[in-house]
Amino acid sequence: MRLAILIFAFAFSMGAALADPLPSWRDGEAKSNILSFVREAVQPGNPAYIVPAERIAVFDNDGTLWAEQPFYFQLAYAIDRVGEMAKNNPDMLAQNPVLEAAAEGDMQGVLASGHDGLLDVIAASHSGMTTGDFKQSVGEWLASARHPTSGQRYHQMVYQPMIELLVYLRDNDFKTYIVSGGGIDFIRVFSEQVYGIPPEQVIGSSIRSEFQVTETTAETVKLPELFFYDDKAGKPVAINHHIGRRPVFAGGNSDGDHQMLQYTDRGGDRPGFALLIHHTDAEREWAYDKGSTIGGLDNALTEARERGWTVVDMKNDWRTVFSFQLGAQ
User: Is the model's pLDDT at 10 over the cut of 50?
Assistant: First the structure.
């Protein structure tokens, strides 16, 4: 009996060891590179060994962990909120064509307004609320709003292969962070439930807040003014500010992530792992890169090929794209 138990335990442990930690990834260079990097990083005595305290992995959100087409999801929330606000306060739209477009649900009109117009919509829809009220508002929106193409709730539009990667890294004592151009408080509403990433490990853009205290409350209240834009060169700055360690693994999908990948790749004596998601699957998701107003990818892809970064061809490297598709399969 004891021998049978030992044999079963050995077989079980071998089966667990041989289990594929990335089942939604097809066998190929991208998957092999990831597995090799992690195996070497956690093996004491290996020249590529990384002590657990320095196993920092950072990921963009929009287009890397969840979809970003046909528009950024936070922008969808902001437009919906402006529409609701305008019903009670139509004067807020006066002499502001961008807010008028938002109130009418004209996404293309808002996008055509450029960076400044987007900031106007974000400021109008986010400011004036306490941080707690804002998070409640986002939570209620996520529970009811639907993606225009898939019909799924927005927080269900997550990439199953990336969820598996996050779990695999954490199973090997990596600490996973989100570093996004999206709003820090917006992402913090769902990051732990959806990605297993707690709110204190989310870095993102933010508008200014002020502290307001009364006899019964003490709250931070959002103001209509940009505080920090966490994109492009801002990402390495934010990583240093919030984390204080250089990442050894970084994942992104656009030129907005280019500098974060450079920061990880050029780590001195120990170069990090740079992962670039290339949207090539027009059938299961979307195909876009250079010239796209959402998630444009040009310079980062060029450097990825020059420096040997791992580029994920979504069409060929992923068996499954979205987590909600697993049930159907």
Answer: no
Look at the block and give the residue holding tokens 């992962």.
Answer: 275
Instruction: Of 103-112, 234-243, 263-272, give the lowest mean pLDDT range.
Output: 263-272
Reading the block at residue 281, the tokens are 């699957």
Beta strands in the chain (DSSP E): 56-59, 175-183, 202-213, 218-228, 249-252, 273-278, 310-313
CA-to-CA distance for 180 and 222, rounded, in angstroms?
Answer: 19
- CA–centroid distance for 46 within its chain: 31
What is the reported pLDDT for 29?
98
- 211 and 133 part of one domain: no
Residue 14 dihedral angles phi and psi, to the nearest 5°? -65, -40
Gap between the Cα atoms of 109 and 111, Å rounded: 6
What are 37's two structure tokens?
A: 């990097």
pTM exceeds 0.85: yes
Residue ranges making up the domain that contains 84: 73-144
Instruction: Please give the tally of structural domains in the chain.
Output: 2
Assess whether 281 and 185 both reside in one domain: yes
Secondary-structure percent of the chain, ordered helix, strand, coil, rounded to 5: 50, 20, 35
96 and 227 both lie in a single domain: no
Same domain, 46 and 135: no
CA distance 63 to 53: 28
Q: What is the pLDDT of residues 24-35, one digit of tens each?
A: 999 999 999 999
- Split at pLDDT 50, 70, 90, the class of 116 is confident
Would you say residue 158 lies in a domain? yes
The DSSP output letter for 92 is: G
Angle between helices 258-265 and 234-242 (to 10 degrees): 60
CATH number, domain containing residue 192: 3.40.50.1000
Is residue 36 a part of any domain in this protein?
yes
